[in-house]
């Protein structure tokens, strides 16, 4: 979707070249890519951006992407069994609806169900070059769903991969990880093939003391290649495959007091996942001032889940199903609470008195008073497809003026018999542009907009304007105003939620296949969520001190917010909620000589939400503190603290220690590393059912390159 790699090198006024910088010491300023699709110095970015580089990724010892994002100020990781969501500044705890997540320019945000499957993204930690996180709304550059932030995962270029690499890790909680890669190089081209797998047992038990069945495993294939077609053209391609499974407890319970659940049911309802992604990017640079890129992406996600459960036969009554569809929400609530329905129309009285009540009597054993029950198979398979094509032009009009512009088309389709009654799809067309104009050697004006047409919600326009005052090329003040949107996903807006239960044994009211009596439909007229964001900030790089500093003050107002917990007996998403977020963030990255590196991330957030779901997830204080140390003799260590004073209502504090030793063996290099994670709090991990057997975790890795 997003074409970043071929953007032109950031231009700055010629006057800077002649001016010495007391703090910069005349060294090149590192550049970032994600903010505007242009390569820019961090001081010139219209917003706040964090970079988790390769050294930090390795030193963290992280096994999964969400763990790396704990290093980013304001980013919150919320586990729920074997599913984790990552949110910026909070809002919904159950889904990361408001983040755009990219892997090498390809969006992995699932538009059908507003999800990012963080544990299932088919990219290994070992293949990641850097993660750039734009901390703020960025629909201007990336379209709807970049409402709160953008996470851009950039993999190692094949040209920088050498030879063979083998890695294995094992430890507590059933951890068993492996990785293997091979790089090939030829005249004008490079290729890297990597295979990887991961497995672990998950949490130990629920809050009630029962076993928690939430282990997961996956295997991944990733092929990355590039080839030069001449002096001005290159091709870059990626192919990714993933298969895996996640354990899920069968927690089905009858919802009617008149129909208690029998004890028979499958113990599990596991999810099988299969993903496919392919992308191809063509880049052309006809001159030093102009570049063109065209990228095409094809993706498919499959989440397959089929499980067996038991209930009273009355819940498959066609009359009860029609009665439910005609009932108001207060009638439904009273019926679920007491088992008694109060008809209000002639048709309701007919269905209840002449249909449901006689059926209920006929299915009741007069000797025991127990309801006749049955068991059947429930199918919750979900499939999503995407085709995405984008063209981008980057033009340097002169030394002070650059323009990036482009257009894209995306087709999304989601298939689910249960949640969508077969299929929903949408077409999204986009036009975007961003102008960077140096008004003088110190004043930088930036303005951009994204115009978008979504076949499900109509047209939208998302503008941004920013003014940067550059004290030097490496030190800048910024003021930014942004508007951004999030489109309701297909399930929120167009749900047709029905459970068709098959292979009923014994037959329910004479039916082998029947529908569960409850159903729900989406409103069909949801509007886009919209944010008005205000930011003041400073970014500076003190080259002589090895110090990078970013400070952000923000005030964000989100209106038309869709806040709901999807339950079939009360499914009523609407645009009535709102959320105000304000606070301060800071990030310090300090290289203390050749041996030590300190990194601090901190966020103070005040949230004022009209819906309790959007209030409980946001901690007032959260952050991380890392110390990386090279001890000499090929020994290195890292010590990292993570904390939040109220993550989904629970305090979270953890200390991670990693100690590693590198050994040279001729042309090969072996690294042995141990990681210890120690919880410093005594609370569940962001949820009442998330309990580990021990407060600590230890695992070892062996990494061989040759």
TrEMBL record:
Q: Which residues form the TonB-dependent receptor plug domain?
A: 44-149
Tell me where the signal peptide lies. 1-17
Keywords assigned:
Cell outer membrane, Membrane, Receptor, Signal, TonB box, Transmembrane, Transmembrane beta strand, Transport
What is its subcellular localisation? Cell outer membrane
Q: What coarse category fits the chief subcellular location reported for this protein?
A: membrane
Residue ranges annotated as coiled coil are none
**Which segments constitute the TonB-dependent receptor-like beta-barrel domain?**
383-649
- Membrane topology label: Multi-pass membrane protein
Origin superkingdom: Bacteria
Question: Family, per the entry?
Answer: Belongs to the TonB-dependent receptor family.
Official protein name in the record:
TonB-dependent receptor plug domain-containing protein
Q: Which organism is it from?
A: Stutzerimonas tarimensis
């Amino acid at each position: 979707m997003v074409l970043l790699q071929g953007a032109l090198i950031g231009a700055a006024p010629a006057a800077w070249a002649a001016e010495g910088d007391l703090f910069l010491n005349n060294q090149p300023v590192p550049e970032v890519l994600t903010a505007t699709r242009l390569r820019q110095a961090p001081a010139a970015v219209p917003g706040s951006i964090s970079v988790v580089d390769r050294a930090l990724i390795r030193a963290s010892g992280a096994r999964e992407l969400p763990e790396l994002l704990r290093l980013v100020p304001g980013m919150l990781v919320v586990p729920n069994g074997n599913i984790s969501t990552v949110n910026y500044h909070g809002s919904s705890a159950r889904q990361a609806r408001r983040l755009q997540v990219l892997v090498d320019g390809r969006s992995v945000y699932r538009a059908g169900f507003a999800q990012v499957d963080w544990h299932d993204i088919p990219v290994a930690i070992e293949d990641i070059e850097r993660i750039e996180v734009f901390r703020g709304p960025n629909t201007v550059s990336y379209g709807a769903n970049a409402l709160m932030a953008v996470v851009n995962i950039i993999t190692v270029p094949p040209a920088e991969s050498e030879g063979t690499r083998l890695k294995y890790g094992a430890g507590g909680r059933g951890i068993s990880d492996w990785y293997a890669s091979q790089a090939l190089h030829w005249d004008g081209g490079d290729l890297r093939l990597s295979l990887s797998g991961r497995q672990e047992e998950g949490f130990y038990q629920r809050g009630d003391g029962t076993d928690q069945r939430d282990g997961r495993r996956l295997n991944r294939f990733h092929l990355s290649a590039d080839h030069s077609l001449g002096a001005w053209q290159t091709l870059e391609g990626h192919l990714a495959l993933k298969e895996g499974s996640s354990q899920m407890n069968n927690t089905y319970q009858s919802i009617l007091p008149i129909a208690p659940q029998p004890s028979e049911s499958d113990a599990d309802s596991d999810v099988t996942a299969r993903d496919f992604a392919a992308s191809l990017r063509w880049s052309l640079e006809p001159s030093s001032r102009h570049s063109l890129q065209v990228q095409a992406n094809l993706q498919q996600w499959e989440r397959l889940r089929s499980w067996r459960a038991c209930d009273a036969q009355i819940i498959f009554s066609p009359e009860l199903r029609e009665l439910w569809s005609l009932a108001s929400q207060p009638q439904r609530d009273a019926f679920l609470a007491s088992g008694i329905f109060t008809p209000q129309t002639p048709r309701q009285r007919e269905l209840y008195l002449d249909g449901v009540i006689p059926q209920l009597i006929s299915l009741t054993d007069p000797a025991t008073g127990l309801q006749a029950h049955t068991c059947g198979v429930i199918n919750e398979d979900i499939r999503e497809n995407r085709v995405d094509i984008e063209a981008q032009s980057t033009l340097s009009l002169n030394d002070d003026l650059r323009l990036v512009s482009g257009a894209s088309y995306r087709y999304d389709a989601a298939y689910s018999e249960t949640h969508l009654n077969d299929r929903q799809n949408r077409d999204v067309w986009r036009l975007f542009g961003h102008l960077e104009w140096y008004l003088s050697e110190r004043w930088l004006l930036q303005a951009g907009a994204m115009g978008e047409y979504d076949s499900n919600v109509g047209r939208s326009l998302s503008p941004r304007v920013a003014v940067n005052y550059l004290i030097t090329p490496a030190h800048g003040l910024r003021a930014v105003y942004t508007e951004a949107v999030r489109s309701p996903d297909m399930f929120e807006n167009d749900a047709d939620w029905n459970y068709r239960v098959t292979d009923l044994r014994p037959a329910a009211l004479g039916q082998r296949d029947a529908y569960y009596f409850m159903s729900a439909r989406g409103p069909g007229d949801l509007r886009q969520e919209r944010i008005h964001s205000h930011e003041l900030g400073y970014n500076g790089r003190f080259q002589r001190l090895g110090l990078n500093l970013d400070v952000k003050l923000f005030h964000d107002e989100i209106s038309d917010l869709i806040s709901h917990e999807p339950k079939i007996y009360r499914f009523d998403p609407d645009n009535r909620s709102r959320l105000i977020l304000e606070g301060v963030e800071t990030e310090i990255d300090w290289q203390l000589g050749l041996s030590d590196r300190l990194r601090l991330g901190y966020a103070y957030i005040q949230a004022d939400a009209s819906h309790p779901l959007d209030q409980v997830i946001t901690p007032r204080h959260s952050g991380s503190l890392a110390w990386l140390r090279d001890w000499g003799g090929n020994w290195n260590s890292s010590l990292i603290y993570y904390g939040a004073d109220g993550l989904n209502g629970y305090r979270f504090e953890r200390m991670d220690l990693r100690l590693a030793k590198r050994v040279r063996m001729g042309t090969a290099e072996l690294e042995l590393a141990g990681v210890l994670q120690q919880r410093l709090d005594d609370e569940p991990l962001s949820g009442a059912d998330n309990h580990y057997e021990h407060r600590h975790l230890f695992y070892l890795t062996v990494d061989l390159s040759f």
